């Protein structure tokens, strides 16, 4: 049975993949991209996402989204769009589930702090770290480090990359040097991520009380859909009204993305994945929707991400990450043995030790990072 017979000719076919870094036998009951998805779901890094911050630190409430629930929501949105465009659902799901595997504890505050700590050692960027996780850091197989994913999944995980870093990454960094596009599935996963976090951060912001519906009514995109909900369900209020409004917002974004992308694909007359790579970006919103999405992102930045109560937690998060990094670099023997670098000349040892410390911290959940910080800096903790 051909599990990919329904795909459009310009979709990514697992049978045509350049393959894996380490050759393996072909799976008998699933495609190569399904195997990728399954390996990601069973990975340690994926499980840790349950206790990593999206916007609100995990202990602030049980109902706020985490990196894990966010990744699942991205995968659901991406699969739905892929089905409509006849793209490879399994590939887009694998990319969506893996795209945040390298994220630090405490969300973007943790990443920014770790990047500042690593400025003399090559920096830190969560997309590169996600690729590092699946290529090197996962320890599940006897024959190789990492998960040994297909080229297409690895390429999709790496959403953006500097030319300096791209030159170090071999085949998966080549498109940044040659100015080529990734697969349509990779392009789609990127925008599904945007749809998910914009709308679900509104939901979490309202649930936390840091945002109000009165504030959101200043955003035409939200107000328009809220009015539709009130017209359809007179007297509706509370969480039910919020969920109905956000559901309509997500649907509008999804429909716009499908219609716009389908038209762009037809206009570009692409027939193969190579045509896709040599074209401009084909998965996109309309100009009008791009404007609405930009206004929504600006609102969230100004009113939620920079809210003083969020900033209080992110300030603590940055301090925790910075102090952990400094402590581990000053005394590597505080680290588990696998993360200690004791060989090489002084410069090499420092470089590798810094990267090992970054791996250790990036792999922490929010609560583990807080616990490690207490163990190191509070005398009543062991």
Molecular structure report:
The chain has 382 residues and is mostly helical. It is built from 18 helices and no strands. α16 runs antiparallel to α17. The radius of gyration is 22 Å and the shape is globular.
CATH H-level superfamily title of the largest domain: Hypothetical protein af1432
The global form is globular
Report Rg. Answer: 22 Å
Order of helices and strands: HHHHHHHHHHHHHHHHHH
Task: Count the beta strands.
Answer: 0
What count of structural domains?
2
Largest sheet: none
Strand content: under 5%
Give me the oligomer status: single chain
Number of helices: 18
Structural class: mainly alpha
CATH fold description of the largest domain: Hypothetical protein af1432
As a percent range, the share of helical residues equals 55-70%
Low-confidence stretches: none
What is the straight-line distance between the termini?
57 Å
Q: So what's the CATH class of the largest domain?
A: Mainly Alpha
Q: Give the second-level CATH assignment, the architecture of the largest domain.
A: Orthogonal Bundle
Mean pLDDT: 92
């Amino acid at each position: 049975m051909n599990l990919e017979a329904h795909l459009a000719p310009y979709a990514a076919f697992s049978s045509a993949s350049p393959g894996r870094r380490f050759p393996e036998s072909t799976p008998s009951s699933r495609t190569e991209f399904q195997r990728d998805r399954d390996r990601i779901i069973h990975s340690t890094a994926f499980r840790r996402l349950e206790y990593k911050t999206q916007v609100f630190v995990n202990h602030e409430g049980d109902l706020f989204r985490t990196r894990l629930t966010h990744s699942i929501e991205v995968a659901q949105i991406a699969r739905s769009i892929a089905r409509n465009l006849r793209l490879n659902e399994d590939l887009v799901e694998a990319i969506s589930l893996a795209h945040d595997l390298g994220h630090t504890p405490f969300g973007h505050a943790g990443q920014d702090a770790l990047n500042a700590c690593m400025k003399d050692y090559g920096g830190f960027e969560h997309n590169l770290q996600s690729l590092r996780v699946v290529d090197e850091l996962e320890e599940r197989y006897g024959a190789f480090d990492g998960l040994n994913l297909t080229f297409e999944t690895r390429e999709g995980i790496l959403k953006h990359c500097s030319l300096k870093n791209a030159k170090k990454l071999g085949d998966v960094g080549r498109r940044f040097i040659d100015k080529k596009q990734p697969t349509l599935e990779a392009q789609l996963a990127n925008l599904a991520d945007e749809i998910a976090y914009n709308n679900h951060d509104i939901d979490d912001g309202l649930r936390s009380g840091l945002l109000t519906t009165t504030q959101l009514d200043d955003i035409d995109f939200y107000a328009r859909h809220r009015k539709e909900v009130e017209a359809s369900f007179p007297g509706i209020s509370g969480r039910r009204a919020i969920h109905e409004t956000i559901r309509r917002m997500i649907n509008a974004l999804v429909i716009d993305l499908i219609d716009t992308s389908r038209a762009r694909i037809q206009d570009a007359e692409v027939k193969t994945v190579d045509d896709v790579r040599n074209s401009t970006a084909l998965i996109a919103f309309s100009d009008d929707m791009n404007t609405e999405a930009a206004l929504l992102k600006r609102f969230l930045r100004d009113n939620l991400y920079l809210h003083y109560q969020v900033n209080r937690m992110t300030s603590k998060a940055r301090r925790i990450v910075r102090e952990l990094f400094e402590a581990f670099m000053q005394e590597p023997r505080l680290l588990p043995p696998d993360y200690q670098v004791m060989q090489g000349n002084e410069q090499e040892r420092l470089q590798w030790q810094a990267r090992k410390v970054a791996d250790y911290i990036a792999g922490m959940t929010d609560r583990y990072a807080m616990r490690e910080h207490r163990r190191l800096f509070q005398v009543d903790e062991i």
